[in-house]
Amino acid sequence: MTILPVPSKDPRDLLFNAQKIDEAVTGGNRSYVDRFGVERLTLAGAIDSIKTVTMRGAWATATAYATKDVVTSGGVAYIAVQSHVSGATFVGDAAYWRVYQGVTSAELASTSFSLGAYLVGYALNKTGAGSQNAKQKLDNIPLIEDMVHAGDSDISVAWARAAAIGGTWQMSGATFTLNPLNTLSVTTGFRVFGNGTTINHASNSVNTFSAVNVNDWMLKDFFIAGPGKANNAAKGVYREGGNRFLVENVVCANMAGHGFYEYPGIHQAPRGDQGNWVNCRVYNCWTGREDLPAQSNEYNNWINFTASGCEYPNITAAGNNQFVGGNIVDNTYGVWLKNGENHAHGMFVGVNINHNGAGSGGWNIRCTDVDNGETFTGCHVYGDNSGTGVIWLERSKGILFNGGILDASVYSEDATGYSFFTNNFCPDSVNTVGKYGAASKKIILRDNYTRAGMWKQNDPGSAFVRAARSGATLSIPANTATTLVFNTEAYDTRDMFNNTTGVATLPWLGNFKIYGSVFITAASGMTSGFMTLLVNGVAAAFAPVVAVNATQAFASFSWSIGGAAGATIELKILMPTGVTMALDSSSQLNIEEIT
């Protein structure tokens, strides 16, 4: 043969091609090699390539097999790659067989026990140890819909059958309409993967899911649709007591009542072994979520909770609950902390609480009768203006906002203690952001900052007074101990100083620095005297008042004291002689807490 291009007239190529034609037409091999070294199908090979697979069952000896016959040996399927008569052993005929990996669509769609999911493998772990097929895996998580019987009123009947069995179940992701009078009750140990199942429940009073004093349960990947936002008694997920539960990726929309509701019930020790709510969302519900005060409702973790379009998106009264991440945005009101048994002292961490407060007295955050404190760390609170979306502290104390973004005004009413706003970024994009209300002096603003530097609304100290004398002079009779009254205050952060009596009252137990300067004027005859610091009416320190001449005297003072809450501080001066002596307007008093 030659490698002359096609067509070739060379006699050597003619002889070679005649032999190859005989091999291609008559031979039993599936392929041959042409004069250029290219492998090509023979007639037998071409027929085999379009031949359908023939299932022959178990391999047998002394049996004629054609190409594409499929047999099983040792539990493995093999396909014949060449026609032959089988020998004594399958191993001896191995050259004629290849492992068969072909599965037809008809076989995958088959409901036969040995086909369909039975043909699809599943590895329990990365090493493949404990492998099984998909049918075995599916059998491990039964389908609640498979429990439906003819005549069932709705899916609640099949649900009840599955719940009575318990264990782990799943749903198909379909949409079901639940009778308004029916509920889906959870039992102990009942765990359900919804796979995106939608439950339409047009009820104004009945709960969609209900878990009453049960443990170790789970709801995951459900969408609950109610009849529309209204102030009624329906709940999307009702939980009463119980321990060790998980509610994840559950959405409640248009509920005539609550999306999620936690009612007091039976719980077991340890107290930290309650439940987790993960990626739960509420839209257009009257109340997004609420926990009533009870030990059974403490120590819950709400991770990435989202609420929009609700009247009251988040009401919490039980203690020690954690809210981490999520968005509470564009609701009529915002987060409401209420009083109750062992209430509050939980945490909100990294939560956006923005653009809420379109309702009357609109607020982003409201704390009502909270005595045990609450911590907001890394949260963003944004009010649309100085009177909308505010932070409202109503007879509450111990509230801490730290390390977040504060762009809302703070109101405090009838507070019995102090609340703290520290180390927050304050954009001041809302006009007149600051602290207001009858108890605004109970709000401590420290170390907050803006784009330009430290926030102008910061308190100069946790407890700080700066007072001076202005207007009418204070007459100082000769040789008479006289209280120095500074009648004008530049600062009085904790409402300590009475500028009518000249007496300061310490707001809490601590160490305080009292410092300033005094200038005395006289018509004539003034001589040096002294000042006395009185704590609770008892002399605690002295400072000289030096007469520079007969008409002017000066004193500079600085004392540090420790005092209890309610202790009084008063400055008295005694000048032995002088005519028409008075406290000059350049005099100043400062009282500052020190550490």
Please describe the topology of this protein.
Blueprint: H1 11-26, E1 31-33, E2 39-41, H2 43-50, E3 54-58, E4 64-65, E5 69-73, E6 76-80, E7 84-85, E8 97-99, H3 105-109, E9 121-122, E10 132-133, H4 134-140, H5 155-165, E11 167-170, E12 175-177, E13 184-185, E14 190-200, E15 209-212, E16 218-225, E17 234-240, E18 245-253, E19 257-263, E20 275-278, E21 281-283, E22 287-291, E23 301-308, E24 312-316, E25 322-329, E26 335-337, E27 347-349, E28 352-354, E29 363-368, E30 374-377, E31 380-382, E32 390-394, E33 399-402, E34 405-407, E35 410-413, E36 419-422, E37 435-436, E38 443-446, E39 449-450, E40 453-454, E41 464-468, E42 474-476, E43 482-483, E44 488-492, E45 504-505, E46 510-521, E47 529-535, E48 538-547, E49 552-563, E50 568-574, E51 581-583, E52 588-594
Features:
single chain, 595 residues, mainly beta, 4 domains, 17-stranded parallel sheet, 12-stranded antiparallel sheet
